[in-house]
Specification:
heterotrimer, A mainly alpha, B mainly alpha, C mainly alpha, A: mainly alpha, about 0% strand, B: two-stranded antiparallel sheet, 19 helices, 2 strands, globular
Chain lengths: ~220, ~475, ~325
């Protein structure tokens, strides 16, 4: 089952999986917010291409709608909104000093290995291609979480949140050729609402702590001191 | 079956109506009316189910069976009583200058939005839609948590949003895996529908389903408030408006647990190992024990009771995890009585903190002297939630203990110990608040305690005797979930 | 016959290298709105330099004078390993890609020694920088190359290229990573923007130019020629490994001619890309280079990993 013997669609999907995984790593190591948002948009483009490719090769029309939705939401609207916030807050020149960047990168690599480990039982019943697609999307999800843990800026948290969504979307497209239409529309709606809510939240956080540094949201404790 | 559409359309109409009508003096009462009509619709639905047992809507989009029908009625009921409480409560908050008309408009609109999401989670037959609705519930409530716009409430809402959003993403991954397992089998139409999956559960690959279940448990477990994913829960409960705490504790947590149990049924059908059950038991027991200890260290009254919610959700998860018919029955009963009791408690807590002007327990004193009804409400509510006979919580906790003794005897001491510690934790805080000396300048407020009384009366009734139709639903649901009839 | 072609190919390499440099310069001038020199200007420069008498510092050792010859011949030997217009040549069969990297290292070693030899401040500084960069670039380069060699199960460039050629159009995730990694390394190794700027002699930033500051006359001509050759070698590597179509597999006049034309086209296109990127990107600080090369290494590693994980069966 060498890659040379697979059809072109599978090859393309695998390449896309690899690139999507790469963008997640790029985001993880990115200290500048504008570049982070740019890479996020890039990931959105990759997803759009993947979706369109799947739609074309399966002749599945509702996936075209998903592709368009992804393009509009994740390549245009959300990056635009985040970019605007960053410019408005005048934090685009700040470089976030990422503590322990090396350790985070190594952590990211081990998360990738971990996702392969978790999903390995799947191989018994299906192709390695599926394992790869699912494992890459799971690791995109986990890397998104790691991104949220390692960054302090609220904007970075939103990017992490949305890239988790991207990972899930990739899994849905590649492993199952897209969820039923109603579910996909629902998910897209949720993402849109979440994006709008994040915009509102930026405003509130800014007015309450005068910064978007989430580390300064520290008034509530598990146990009252 | 038309009733389902009514149940969903009424709150939808509510969202639109409140969003466009703007806030007026009688909006709170209108909200009560919307919820009342919705309760009637759910009762209509319940009567349908009474003689048909399980109904699938045409197109299989909705599924009503004994497991969810009583939860639907319960949701509508708690929604109604909480809205009765919320009307004067929110008006009072507005008089204090904490809220504006615009925010109240948002509040009422999103109240209905939350109710819609809850009904959708319960009625839908589609696992994907269930996820969407669950996320929708987060989105609807997140702005309500930060309704007061204090730095604390914004922090709480941000935590709630991020933690629940990330958590629930795991559940979506689980759902995708589930769908993948179904697509793989091939020849199954509409393979994201629960009823279809349930019929074909034995064909699905158990390994994939078990992996999927782990993700579902983590995802929906965040919403249940399972330790260690519970951090958002006390914050959101304590910083949001009290009616929100009541519905979050009484409904959202239940529905998340409902989603987990639905998935567990599929996994149990596919694999005959007890992995899923053991996972639930482990997480449930951990949450139970951790929450019990945190009860002792709280200073905020709403945080106190939110930890109590975590404790009870942990116990239910544990009971569902055991998976015997007795424990399942107990868990179903516990879901009902806990949500009735806890929402009643939050209603009284809301009044109590309005009386004292603060949520800090060290400042709430002598309630029984200032306003005896609130004092008694809080006292009886806490007695009920701590598991005293003759209230329903006692019955269900007793059954859980019995089931544990039956299946895992060595875990019983842990449970007993936990219940004891929880009791101590609740009462050491409660005693001075209810009795104690009345502080200066503490005045009675206008409070509507009917919801509390009705809830507590119901809990008392359920502790003494379970009405026939409810018992029937419980045993039907038990057969569905555990595979055998209780006792 | 094949030996003849091999020698011819190497000569072509040596002869065409200045032309590529001229074309690159021409493209850049056009992009930057400057009047472009003739395409053959590098040849004229080389000829001019050879005619001049080399001036050697008084305390320079024999190493200083011998180094340009060693550097040039090592680079030419490296060129024999890389298939330019045809595969299956005896020279490329006798040595594999690791030997090629070895030749580069050998040349660099002598260049650094020569920089140190005369004892000026700039020479030492340049040598130290050059060695720093190359110590980071070499692993990344080998990573990228190994991805290719694992796919083809050989370290021989010629065999690997014909393997890729025979497999037809296969979209490999590993190749995408390896391609990017190799391009980044090529830019660093040949001293182009953003790692080094070959056209300035600004004291604080120069790397390659700092080492050869004391050279003149034919010595300088040889070193310049060698570095032009090196640029072309990397270009050919990128072009022929990842886009091998058109290279001659049989030795007829037709296929060889076609091979020559195709490689010229590919190199021209690559040079345009390089010119555009050099126009767009600013040179980065010396201390950022490690990040840059670390990224290249990461890409190479990912390429290797994705080859192992995604492309082979278990």
């Amino acid at each position: 089952m060498n890659i040379g013997h697979q059809d072109f669609y599978t090859q393309a999907i695998l390449s896309m999986a690899a690139l999507v995984g790469l963008t997640s790593f790029l985001m993880l190591g990115q200290g500048r917010l504008l570049r982070l948002i740019f890479v996020f948009a890039l990931q959105g483009v990759l997803l759009t291409v993947t979706t369109a490719l799947t739609a074309y090769s399966l002749d599945n029309h509702h996936l075209y709608i998903s592709a368009v939705l992804t393009l509009v939401l994740k390549v245009m609207f959300i990056p635009w909104m985040l970019r605007r916030q960053v410019l408005l807050m005048n934090i685009h020149r700040d470089i976030e000093a990422l503590k322990n960047n090396t350790i985070i990168m190594l952590g990211g690599a081990s998360l990738m290995v971990f996702s392969y480990y978790v999903l390995h039982p799947i191989v018994q019943t299906s192709s390695t291609i599926m394992l790869n697609a699912l494992a890459v999307s799971l690791s995109v999800v986990l890397l998104g979480m790691l991104l949220m843990i390692s960054h302090r800026q609220a904007v970075a948290h939103v990017v992490g949140f949305m890239s988790i969504e991207n990972g899930l979307f990739f899994a849905a497209i590649v492993a199952t050729n897209g969820m039923p239409m109603v579910v996909e529309l629902g998910i897209a709606f949720d993402v849109l609402v979440a994006a709008v809510l994040f915009g509102i939240f930026f405003f509130h956080i800014r007015t309450s702590i005068d910064s978007l540094d989430v580390d300064r949201l520290n008034r509530l404790h598990e146990v009252d001191k | 079956m038309i009733a389902v559409y009514f149940v969903l359309l009424i709150p939808f109409g509510g969202i639109v109506f409140f969003a466009f009508a703007g806030h007026k003096a009688d909006t709170g009462k209108l909200n009560v009316r919307f919820n009342a009509i919705c309760l009637l619709a759910t009762i209509w639905l319940a009567i349908n189910v009474l003689d048909q047992n399980t109904i699938l809507s045409s197109g299989k989009a909705f599924l009503i069976d004994p497991f969810n029908v009583y939860l639907i009625v319960l949701t509508a009921f708690v929604g109604l009583t909480t809205s009765i409480f919320s009307a004067p409560y929110m008006a009072h908050e507005k008089d204090l200058g904490k809220l504006t008309d615009n925010r109240l408009k948002l509040y009422y609109s999103m109240y209905q939005g939350f109710m819609l999401a809850m009904y959708l989670v319960l009625t839908t037959n589609n696992m994907g839609v269930m996820w969407v609705a669950m996320e929708g519930a987060t989105l609807a409530t997140v702005l309500l948590v930060s309704l007061y716009r204090t730095p604390e409430s914004i922090e709480a809402a941000w935590k709630y949003f991020i933690l629940c959003g990330v958590g629930i993403a795991q559940a979506l991954f689980g759902t995708i895996l589930l769908y993948y397992a179904a697509v793989q089998v091939g020849g199954i139409e509409n393979s994201l529908l629960w009823s279809v999956l349930y019929e074909n559960a034995n064909k699905l690959n158990p390994e994939i389903l078990e992996i999927a279940f782990v993700f579902m448990l983590i995802g929906y477990g965040t919403k249940i408030g399972l330790v260690p994913l519970h951090n958002w829960l006390p914050d959101a409960h304590s910083e949001g408006p009290t009616p929100m705490s009541a519905v979050l504790s009484g409904l959202l947590l239940n529905d998340a647990l409902y989603a987990v149990v639905r998935n567990k049924m599929l996994v149990d059908g596919a694999s005959h190992s007890e992995t899923a059950g053991h996972l639930m038991m482990g997480f449930g027991l951990l949450s139970f024990l951790v929450a019990v200890f945190f009860l002792h260290r709280q200073k905020d009254i709403k945080r106190l009771f939110s930890y109590s919610s975590i404790e009870h959700m942990g116990m239910m998860t544990f009971a569902f995890g055991i998976g015997s018919s007795l424990s399942t029955f107990a868990a179903l009963l516990h879901m009902t009585v806990h949500s009735l009791t806890k929402s009643a408690i939050f209603v009284t807590v809301g009044h109590a903190s309005q009386v004292a002007g603060t949520q800090s327990m060290s400042k709430i004193r002598g309630l029984i002297k200032t306003q005896p009804r609130i004092g008694w409400g809080l006292l009886i509510g806490t007695i009920a939630i701590a598991g005293f006979p003759p209230f329903g919580v006692f019955t269900s906790e007793f059954l859980v203990l019995l089931a544990t003794m039956h299946s895992y005897p060595w875990l019983t001491p842990l449970l007993l110990l936990g219940i004891g510690i929880a009791f101590a934790g609740l009462f050491r805080h409660l005693q001075p608040m209810v009795y104690g000396d009345k502080p200066e300048g503490q005045l009675p407020i206008e409070a509507n305690l009917w919801p509390v009384m009705i809830h507590l009366a119901l809990v008392l009734w359920l502790g003494l005797a379970i009405p026939g139709f409810l018992a029937n639903w419980f045993s039907q649901a038990t057969i569905l979930i555990s595979g055998s009839a209780p006792l | 016959m094949s030996w003849l072609i091999a020698i011819l190919q190497t000569l072509l390499f040596v002869a065409l290298a200045p032309l590529l440099a001229g074309w690159l310069k021409w493209c850049k001038c056009c992009l930057q709105n400057r009047k472009a020199p003739s395409l053959f200007q590098p040849y004229r420069d080389l000829i001019k330099l050879t005619k001049k008498q080399p001036v050697v510092a008084g305390h320079a050792s024999w190493l200083f004078t011998i180094a340009p010859y060693i550097i040039f011949s090592a680079t030419v030997l490296a060129a024999t390993v890389v298939p330019l217009i045809a595969v299956d040549l005896p020279t490329s069969a006798s040595a594999d890609v690791i030997v090629m990297v070895g030749f580069f290292a050998f040349a660099r070693f002598f260049l650094a020694l020569a920089g140190l030899d005369i004892g000026t401040a700039f020479g030492g500084m340049g040598s130290s920088r050059e060695m720093t960069i190359s110590s980071l670039a070499e692993p990344a380069m080998l990573m990228a190359i190994f991805t290719l060699t694992m796919t083809a199960s050989t370290t021989n460039l010629s065999v690997a290229i014909s393997h890729v050629l025979n497999e037809g159009l296969v979209l490999r995730p590993s190749f995408v990573f390896a391609l990017f990694a190799l391009m980044l390394v090529a830019i660093a190794e040949t001293g182009r923007v953003p790692v080094d700027n070959p056209v300035t002699h600004l004291e604080l930033t120069m790397i390659h130019e700092a080492m050869i500051l004391e050279y003149s006359g034919r010595h300088l001509a040889l070193i310049e020629w060698a570095s032009q050759l090196k640029l072309m070698l990397y270009g050919v590597l990128v072009a022929n490994i990842f886009f091998p179509w058109g290279i001659a597999e049989t030795f007829s006049l037709q296929t060889l001619g076609l091979g020559l034309l195709v490689i010229l086209g590919k190199l021209a296109v690559l040079a345009i890309f390089l010119a555009v990127s050099e126009t767009l990107v600013a040179k980065m600080r010396m201390f950022r280079v490690q990040e840059y090369l670390g990224f290249a290494y990461l890409l190479g590693l990912l390429g290797m990993l994705s080859h192992i994980i995604l492309e082979t069966s278990r």
